[in-house]
Amino acid sequence: MVAPIRFGIMGCADIARKICRAIGLAHNATVVAVGSRSADKARRFIADNGLPENTHVHGSYEELLEDPAVDAVYVPLPTSLHVHWAVAAAGKGKHVLLEKPPALNAAELDRILEACEVNGVQIMDGTMWMHHPRTAKMRELLSDPDLFGQVKRTNSIFSFNGDSDFLKNDIRVKPDLDGLGALGDAGWYCIRSILWANDYDLPRTAIAFPNPVKNEAGVVLSCDASLHWEDGRVATFHCSFLAHLTMDLTVIGSKGTLQLNDFIVPIEQKSAHFTFASGSCFDDLVDSWTTFPKKHVVSTDLPQEALMVSEFSSLVAAIKESGAKPDHKWPTISRKTQVVLDAVKTSLDSGSKPVQIAF
Prior knowledge:
Elements: E1 5-10, H1 14-25, E2 29-35, H2 39-48, E3 56-58, H3 61-66, E4 72-75, H4 82-91, E5 95-98, H5 106-119, E6 123-125, H6 133-142, E7 151-161, H7 164-169, H8 181-197, E8 205-208, E9 213-214, E10 220-228, E11 234-240, E12 242-253, E13 256-260, E14 271-278, E15 294-299, H9 304-322, H10 329-349, E16 355-356
Parallel strand pairs: 1-2, 1-4, 2-3, 4-5, 5-6, 7-11
Antiparallel strand pairs: 7-12, 8-10, 8-16, 9-10, 10-11, 12-13, 13-14, 14-15
Protein name: Oxidoreductase
Pfam families: GFO_IDH_MocA, GFO_IDH_MocA_C3
Domain GFO/IDH/MocA-like oxidoreductase: 137-258
């Protein structure tokens, strides 16, 4: 039996509580250490999250990376700190599960990916919905040329209405911590969903919509953009900290349409649904459809974040136990998402000028 991958959690952000629970649920992972900028904060995190009393306490991130019991680190730090600590973790031979967005720009991400490649460690970003079995089922239908045909249009929305405290104090609205704002947080999911729907074929051009909403520090709170392919495919997305919770994804093909309204976090933990229509048309009187969209329900015993941890840990175990090479699938997808995000940001900063996308 292969020993579980031993995680160190680097930082005690709110999202770390969710991943700590996910590591506990995964069959092939365990938390052995927590590092924070103070030992007291690490101890409180251990106690509050029901971790064993013998979990290693580290009063600095450097101490955590020196811990020989740690195989991999989960990094939920502000995005501005990712490049330093992910590179440092890779340099110590620690595999890296890195919160999204993984970097402020592609140049920073390339430094992270190079460090992981040189040191032979696995990296994966924390886009959880990618690991839900619903995602695989949707891909199966989108890949059927008879049912779906060719992608023509994709639309993605992720918004939530941040309260006054969030809009004033959250790290995602601070230019020195997460300067990408809503684009980096909510927009990352939108861009990833668009790339996923288009089988990771990069668009040629990004065009931000005019008049994004920014706070006094210049951080984006709400914005929209369109992506364009040379063959005529178009995608649009909206990301916002200022509108009601919405997680819509629509993928329109030449023969079918896929829709769901909770693509990032399923409304229910143990089952997730989507609708798929194929060959739809009107009846003779044009007052109803001849073929109705079908609701598909996909069940899971584990939440998507635990499935993410499990998949990451399996890749790490293959490297650790069998001498396998790191899997390049996940870092490649991360980089494609990042370069599109960069192009959208450049368009935003230039007053909505079209920006060419190059991988």
